[in-house]
Amino acid sequence: MSSELDLDEFGRSYWGSRALLSHGGDYGDLFTLQAADELLSRRGLRTPFLRLAKDGAVVGDNQFTGPGGAGAEIGDQVRDDKVAALFASGHTVVLQALHRTWPALVDFATQLSTDAGHPVQINAYITPAESQGFAAHYDVHDVFVLQVAGEKHWTVHEPVHVDPLRNQPWTDHSQAVEAAARDRAPVIDDVLRPGDALYVPRGFLHSAKALGGVSAHLTVGLHTMTRYLLVQELAALAADEPSLRAALPLGFDPGDPAQLATVLDEVASLLTKKIEQTTPDELAPRLRRRTWSGNRPAPLPPLAHAAAIASLAIGTPVRLRPGLRFHLVEGDPVRLQLPDRTIFLPKATYPAVERLCSGADVKVGDLPSLDAPDQLVLVRRLLTEAVLTIP
User: Fold this and answer.
1) Which of helix, strand or coil describes residue 132?
2) What is the predicted pLDDT for the residue at 135?
3) pLDDT-based confidence at 129, cuts 50/70/90?
4) Band (4; pLDDT cuts 50, 70, 90)
């Protein structure tokens, strides 16, 4: 966003509801054309980290992948020569999941996901001059387009299907999408140049065409969590209700409205009662398991981390692993709930664990309520569990 628009104003006026074009950024520290060349030629990428497309048609993987050669007995490694030929013939290169493969974007996505509270993915689209990779369509997640090289003309239209869910792709409404892109006035019709950013909420139609030279942009996707997510998990809790697990009558035809009417009111009443009785404490663990794994925390160097555990001593600084989602519950035992497991710790450790989870750098020996030997035991345990790292 531009410097004139703060985060609160963006949240109130644009998030999920309005497209926004802003100028004056600089994304050269995140990604460049040289970075794309390195990924395509020197990093041993495999599918599905790469797609190629032209005029809306995606190229089959076998047209740009091949064997990895001696010592790398795989059949789907990206072939730089084939990618070069396809790009020269007008195909768009799509580097997928850069939040897992390019260091600067790994760190950027980790921080953005922490700040936004929604899982983040990042792709790069590199388009030859005067080419279009994809026709008008909508995404089922919000996107921020960051222009990093060249110029690209973007057209954005209001939705034909507002706030689509992940199982409601644009192809379900392809005729309406085509008609709207053809007949409606766009809400944004402009050229993005390096440093420009475009926010496109999910459901908004968009298409882009490179202009006089090679164009590259990052698409930062936020996998928006919705109220429907709570509906899904509330309904899933119905499996705990014996009366809702009961079998329907023998010979029951669920496609017959008359037969359905004999049980629908009762089932709806039982489901409503179950939902009304559900507490946030019951629902939260299910939502943690479902959503917290959407992004990994900051990378952990295994060899250096093992060495840090071995050399841990009084005075060693530690910090919470950036991007790690957790929920700390005081009690006996203390529960540190993580995306994939819960760590149980003695009641006396709570003040120390709370300090360690604050995100600030803390030295072993400075933790509250524990003597030095117990601090070493606690910190070593949390380092081993990959909760803490050495700054």
Assistant:
1) coil
2) 85
3) confident
4) low
The H-or-E segment that residue 124 falls in is strand 120-127
Look at strands 50-54 and 57-58 and give their pairing: antiparallel
For residues 122, 127, 132 and 136, what is the CA-based torsion angle, rounded to 10 degrees? 10
pTM reported for the whole predicted model = 0.89
Say how far apart CA 362 and CA 55 lie, in whole Å: 54
Contacts made by residues 54-57, CB under 8 angstroms, sequence distance 24+: 54/89, 54/90, 54/91, 54/92, 54/131, 54/133, 55/132, 55/135, 56/132, 56/133, 56/134, 56/135
What would you report as the CA-atom Rg of the chain, rounded to the nearest whole angstrom?
A: 25
Predicted confidence (pLDDT) per residue in 60-102, tens digit: 999 999 998 888 888 899 999 999 999 999 999 999 999 999 9
Residues 6+ apart with CB under 8 A from 146: 25, 27, 30, 197, 217, 218, 220
Contact criterion met (CB below 8 Å) for 219 and 147:
no
Provide the token pair at 366. 């400075």
Asked if pLDDT for residue 3 goes beyond 70, the answer is no
Smallest CA-to-CA distance from 334 within 349, 320, 352 is with: 349
What percentage of the chain reaches a pLDDT higher than 70? Answer: 98
Distance CA 200, CA 281 (A): 34
